[in-house]
Amino acid sequence: MKKVSLLGSTGSIGTQTLDVIHANAEHFSVVGLACGTNIALAREQITTFRPEIVSVAHAADAKMLQEEFGRSITFCHGVDGLVEVARWQEADVVVTAVTGAVGLVPTLAAIESGKTIALANKETLVTAGHLVMAAARKHNVAIIPVDSEHAAIFQCLNGESRTTVDRLILTASGGSFRDRTRAELAGVTVEQALAHPNWSMGAKITIDSATMMNKGLEVIEAHWLFDIDYDKIDVVIHQESIIHSMVEYVDRNVIAQLGTPDMRVPIQYALTYPDRLARPQTERLRLHELGTLHFAKLDTRRYPAMKFAYDAGRAGGTMPTVLNAANEVAVAAFLQGKISFLQIEEMIERALTEHTRMDHPTLEEIQAVDHEVRKKLQSVCS
Ligand SMILES: NC(=O)C1=CN([C@@H]2O[C@H](COP(=O)(O)OP(=O)(O)OC[C@H]3O[C@@H](n4cnc5c(N)ncnc54)[C@H](OP(=O)(O)O)[C@@H]3O)[C@@H](O)[C@H]2O)C=CC1
Ligand SMILES: CC(=O)[C@@H](O)[C@H](O)COP(=O)(O)O
Ligand SMILES: [Mn+2]
């Protein structure tokens, strides 16, 4: 029986993780849950899964739930609460499924406590990949990718030495505006941007997918997870999201991982790794029904966010921290109707241009840069 702490339990990945756990109750139990403000759903999850510790965003909600559920469950709140759930003694595996760089400190806490990490929260690796991977090496902790592309690459690599890898090829759906020109992006609405063609996901990642920043963040995520140089990471547009990613080896063998687009598949694999469990709940892939799969070259003039991400990743130091923080603020501002879709890119580009890179930043330096970028951009948006 693996005991799971789940950060971001009320979100898209969080609820699908609980689906997987519920369907495999003889293999997994939930010892910790952490979420933000969706208290109604948190209440249902607590009732169903009876965790030992729960964290929510606000103190008042934690107090209310403590009174409702009594002292047999520990309730806490805020970032400290996320950290408590992440390092809860009983947990074997921590699923990191909060959105954004708020996941960094809890992820480091889980690693320092020796927990296996099932990592969905890509922003953590983007903002401080060098710290996270160094901590994982130091504490001999496995980071198992949940993100579909990285779960695919992880399986295609199958433990093979990275010296035989010529290229990682990440697939990108093209997002909600794949078939629009740049000129047609002026004036697009939040509702249109949130209509992802293949995946039902949280709002932030769905907007990232529409700007292609999601793939940019994933390139940086792949760099850290698989210790591969940026020159060896390519992206191809594949509108069906059936091939989740590929590895090309030096001998020109290309291994791809395919499957119907259902995040419960990589979530389950991250939880069962190195074993596999049957998953009859997910539709079988029927290629003859699909008929054709499409591939197209990604044009960075159409998707400048890709260039920002490659440039920030290659520059290293605090540049990816700036990229991520600026993107988080810009996407939130777009979702709140404060800026237009195309202004997301403008804000990120300006933040990157105005920043002077710091090399080998410490956690405190990363937090300071993250804070500074957010403060500056939030004042522009309000
Ligand atoms: N959705 C997907 O299919 C995929 C997602 N990912 C990655 O997984 C992560 C989660 O994505 P997704 O599930 O879509 O996001 P959602 O927005 O659906 O869910 C986010 C979760 O994080 C919680 N949360 C957000 N901020 C805080 C905070 N400050 N403190 C505590 N909890 C917080 C939310 O709580 P509440 O709602 O209660 O406020 C919610 O439970 C992201 O990093 C994303 O990039 C990667 C691949 C695929
Ligand atoms: C399901 C998943 O892993 C998402 O990150 C997905 O990849 C988003 O799709 P695109 O970014 O390719 O549109
Ligand atoms: Mn992905």
Automatic annotation (TrEMBL):
What EC number(s) has UniProt assigned to this enzyme?
A: 1.1.1.267
What sequence ranges are listed for the domain 1-deoxy-D-xylulose 5-phosphate reductoisomerase N-terminal? 4-129
Domain DXP reductoisomerase C-terminal: start-end pairs: 258-375
Q: GO terms for biological process? A: isopentenyl diphosphate biosynthetic process, methylerythritol 4-phosphate pathway involved in terpenoid biosynthetic process
Q: What does this protein do?
A: Catalyzes the NADPH-dependent rearrangement and reduction of 1-deoxy-D-xylulose-5-phosphate (DXP) to 2-C-methyl-D-erythritol 4-phosphate (MEP).
Which lineage?
Bacteria, Bacillati, Bacillota, Bacilli, Bacillales
Residues bound to Mn(2+) are: 147, 149, 218
Any idea where the 1-deoxy-D-xylulose 5-phosphate reductoisomerase C-terminal domain is?
143-226
Instruction: Classify the source by domain of life.
Output: Bacteria
Keywords of the record = Isomerase, Isoprene biosynthesis, Magnesium, Manganese, Metal-binding, NADP, Oxidoreductase
> Transmembrane ranges?
none
The record, for Gene3D superfamilies, names: 1.10.1740.10, NAD(P)-binding Rossmann-like Domain
Pfam name, any one:
DXPR_C
Residues recorded as binding NADPH, renumbered to this chain, are 10-13, 36, 38, 121, 123, 202
Which biological pathway? Isoprenoid biosynthesis; isopentenyl diphosphate biosynthesis via DXP pathway; isopentenyl diphosphate from 1-deoxy-D-xylulose 5-phosphate: step 1/6
Q: Which one of the record's GO molecular function terms can you name?
A: NADPH binding
UniProt catalytic activity: 2-C-methyl-D-erythritol 4-phosphate + NADP(+) = 1-deoxy-D-xylulose 5-phosphate + NADPH + H(+)
Q: Tell me the protein's name.
A: 1-deoxy-D-xylulose 5-phosphate reductoisomerase
Gene encoding the protein: dxr
Please name the InterPro entries in this protein's record. Answer: DXP_reductoisomerase (IPR003821), DXP_reductoisomerase_C (IPR013644), DXP_reductoisomerase_N (IPR013512), DXPR_C (IPR026877), DXPR_C_sf (IPR036169), NAD(P)-bd_dom_sf (IPR036291)
Please give the cofactor(s) recorded in the UniProt entry for this protein.
Answer: Mg(2+); Mn(2+)
